[in-house]
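#dry-run=false #mode=assembly
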Amino acid sequence: MPIYKAPLEDVRFVLDEIVGLDKLSALPGYEEATPELVGQVLEEGAKLCEEVLFPLNQSGDGEGCHFENGVVRTPKGFKEAYATYIEAGWQGLACDPAYGGQGLPKLVNIMLEEFICSANLSFGMYPGLSLGAYNALSMYGSDELKQRFLPKLVDGTWSGTMCLTEPHCGTDLGIIRTKAVPDEQGGYTITGTKIFISAGEHDLTENILHLVLARLPDAPAGTRGISLFLVPKFLAKEDGTPGALNGVACGSIEHKMGIKASSTCVMNFEDATGWLVGEPHKGMRAMFVMMNAARLAVGIQGLGLSEVSYQNAVNYARERLQGRSLSGVKAPDKPADPIIVHPDVRKNLMTARAYTEGARALGALVAYHLDVAERHADPRTKRDSDEFVQLMTPIVKALFTDIGFESANIAVQVHGGHGFIWETGVEQYVRDARICQIYEGTNGIQALDLVGRKLPQDMGRLLRHFFHPVGRDIEAGMEDDELGEFVMPLAKAFAKLQQATALIAQKGLKDPEEAGAAASDYLRLFGLVALGWSWLTMVKAAKAKLAAGDGNAAFYEAKITTARFYMAKLLPQVNSLFITITAGAKPLMELEDAAF
Amino acid sequence: MKIERAAVIGAGVMGAGIAAHFANAGIPCVLLDIPAKEGDRSAIAKGAVAKMLKTDPAPFMHPKNARLITPGNLEDDLNLLADVDWIVEAIVENPAIKADLYTRIDPVRKAGSVVSSNTSTIPLAVLTGGQSERFAQDFLITHFFNPPRYMRLLEIVGGPATRTDALAAIADVCDRRLGKGVVHCKDTPGFIANRIGVFWIQAAVNAAVDLGLTVEEADAVGGRPMGIPKTGVFGLMDLVGLDLMPHIAKSMLATLPAGDAYREQVREHAVITRMIADGYIGRKGKGGFYRINKAGGGKVKESVDLKTGAYAPSEKARLDSVSSAGRDLRKLCEHPDKGGRFARRVLAQTLAYAASLVPEIADSIVAVDEGMRLGYNWKQGPFELIDRLGSVWFAELCRSEGIPVPALIETAAGRPFYRVEDGKLQHLTTGGVYDTVVRPDGVLLLSDVKRAAGKPVWKNGSASLWDIGDGVLCVEFTSKMNAVDADIMAAYGKAMGLVGDGKGVWKALVIHNEADNFSVGANLGLALFALNIGLWPQIEEMVEGGQRTYRALKYAPFPVVAAPSGMALGGGCEILLHSDHVQAHAETYVGLVEVGVGLIPAWGGCTEMLARHQANPKAPRGPMPGIAKAFEIISTATVAKSAAEAKELLYFRATDGITMNRDRLLADAKAKALELAENYTPPEKTTAYVLPGPSAKAAMELAVEGFALQGKVTPHDKVVCAALADVLSGGDSDVSKPVGEDHVLRLEREAFMGLVHTTGTIDRIEHMLLTGKPLRN
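#status=ok
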């Protein structure tokens, strides 16, 4: 049976030392987000995840969703868990108080989301999609539309979906076929088929609000002709409660490799009534603006899976007795040593640990800037933070989900043969993690976004928000002898990143295929340096805490030790990545299509 | 015969401008108009000169040139004509009034002097009809374009009686001293440029109306894709003035042959007629096809709807034909959208018209192409455009548009109108054979050199080295906008390596290219990218490397002659400062503009300007005046508006040369290089800069404060000026201890690196690159 305990101490450390909770509550509108309140919220959230959501994770995977006569049944216990979730107000944690939300910073919500994803990724899909629908509607909906639909979305009585993908297009949304035709009442009639719609149909709420991309009759071709519509499952009665069924139906659900308790639906819209959200033909632009938050959320899914995988791997490695340590017997009174003593197991555990903790710190920093971008009083600061987030989201999404998959596999490996058995519970994480590398823009697309859009934009302006602070921290770190073993490797890796960046910019200008060929390696390289920067920051904080005699010394020592591992054993991958990047596109593209 | 003194009669826009340009050429010029009714009788001519001194763009290359004009009037000052070798008549286009004038000046003018008319509509025969035989022999037409200083075309028409030596002398003066591209035309209506230009404008307007294009769409198709300035047709008409168009049409109709295709094109468009009646005549009025609507305190660019005549906010043209065709003219014409159909029709009609006019308006196609290039700023003339389409394809296009295929196209029989044979450019004659394109005597064009050589001596991504003969090596920039980057520095290094001590195969280096602009400065895009990823060492190396290279050029054991034309800014100016000699085109616009992007000149620009201004014999004594002047020029990013002005700012030395005709620039530069190569010794190092240090810096900062009080200085200006002051004051030096070049160059580097770390400078660089305009932060 798998285990999970929310990593509250590490989250506290990250929030206090890396982000600085006082900076958060200094943002206009967030005055109430004091360290005390945030701490309480996270503790309560942790309990919910450990006690209510986690127990349903394995059973939900075993049972899966069931589809019959247009109705989708979620696994046993999900409906009750959802009711508990919304009763306590978790759905509206970071939503606008004007519509019933608690108005807490996005950063806090994201830290909570990590716990949810660790505990029960499938469950997390439902409130996650609702939050996506909430974002779309609150950013672009008219006041009238918001008044009508936001309150129940915020309190969770209704849930939401994002309906973009169609059978013939996922990545390339410019060619969608779903149509929207104006009706006589100021609304629209929507017809089309969407697939892979998470939470499209289920038994958790009395209504489902679909945010649908469709084309108007006079729409220009391509992405410039896409509009966003709100299409509820049930049309409202006079009193606002759900009435007649709209022209929306679930055609079937998918049988998937993972997140089996999440209902992934084919949605058929047939003359469904809907309303325009935002301006005609500006649907894709709205999508792009929301993409930062959405991609960050998927990255956090990867982080959550990495954490729970790591915990289970450690748990098993402590208990499982096999063989003796290479450096002398460690448990003479036992028939064998616990496998945690073996270097290879160590390597696996340290890898998952270093990646997870590094990603947590980096993710929190990016999430913090999401709040700054929205709330800060100074326009320049807002813009800078927004650009930092734009730059980092493809990295967070791709790197963290790769880490999630890698850690999940590490957990299976550490468990040996037992890891392969369903009942043990860890192979589920591998299966659940796999989709995170694919949806919300495949990791390959994230890499292209990084080198094709973010890197060249305005001659590299977005890059400044990363390269300058990192450069400064390295320069400052060089002055401190004690930091040498951390700063020097980071400095070397950073130099490689700079060179790779200049090279790709130069080559990519002349030949976009060169940029495309280097993209994934480059994203990984960039991500490794970013994690290295996070580790340097954590080391400085840990050393300061130790010097001040504050808090849990063992925790800080462990931070420093893990940082050492990261710098010595994981960061050096940048060297081979740099070499493969310089090798160019030719070795990749040379083989004729026919020869494959 | 020699032309030493000139006169212009008629002080209107053209006449006064022509007089100013004579002055620019150093030719003393009398300017006469009718006497004023009250007050100073020469007020009209005097007023014209005064007005020109305030006009922008300036007709005078330097205000002091105005002194070469002697204003007068036609009653009191006719005697002044006795001294003059060439009289230009630029009065109202009325044959009777002109005839009267000619009759009056003929008896008083110098024997053997030349009289030319600036007419654009009256046949030469009409002008000489009724005048004496002697007058006809001395008479020709010299058609200047507006404005006379800047437009390079000079259409020259000799009559049957015109003396050959007179024609030759005038052509020569226009070429060498006025710097014009002289094109010999036949005496036909509109000569070459306007004959075709007026047709083209009418055809384009008709096509736009018939095919339902907006003015923006017509200008988008009929502009850049065809190598025509982006003003297209409607923007051009706004510049010329819509009110002129009916007059031009009338005069053309009166003089064109019966079957001329223009007659079928001429059409009145109700919308345009109404616009003229309502005063929407273009830029000189309250707007034309485009206007700026200032209602409600805003500034909205509007355009007229060709169907209704109503104005609406100008919408950028979005045509698939334009975006998908790129530079491919055939693709543009083949596109089914209205842009493509517009291109087909206008190109077919205009190019067929042009092709049908040879030999009627000129003996060779070369004259026609030159006329359109120089007179209308087309990148390629009609026959060059036909070659781009292919004459067979073009013939097919004509047929499909219902236009008779011109005889010359049939003569071409599928062959191109221009070809390169044995490295020489040749053109097809009306006889159907190829003839070498002849350049005027003494002209050396880099493009001819390149054609003959085929391959350069050496090249890299941003520069090529060419052998321009007699042991002179030429460095040609080929980067985008001729921006200076590491590759150009490498090319200099390679060139210096090849020339060695200058005593071998190579004797001298010339730096020259034929682009519109010599160089707009360092490649900021690369610099900004490096800045954004924090590659400070690489940026510092870029600065230091540039300093090293420019200094190596300055002290090389052989002459380095730069031959710029157009803009030479920033790093493109600094190379001129380090050359032994600059042979500049008169229209060279040189300046150290680094402050506009939050930087200071750091490739030796500050060091050189300091040396020149401190050594300036015309400045007051002591170290400060030179420092103050250099500070003033650099801190205000002063750009000289002519080579003459550049000399005054000491961007050019007194010994540097000015060439009026751009085509003669390279030949002049090469001759100078060879002259310097005889017994060449490198310049002395300016070892002693007397720089007061902190007190000088304080003085400069005080000056900035003064400007700040007037509201002329922004916060970041102060930061940049402070960095500049650090350099020009000598840093921590003092008057008793003169410093060397190395000291000042180091200060340049330090100041530059300091600035490059500031947000204000990064913002300025970024803004310039993204918008093309300086950021006033």
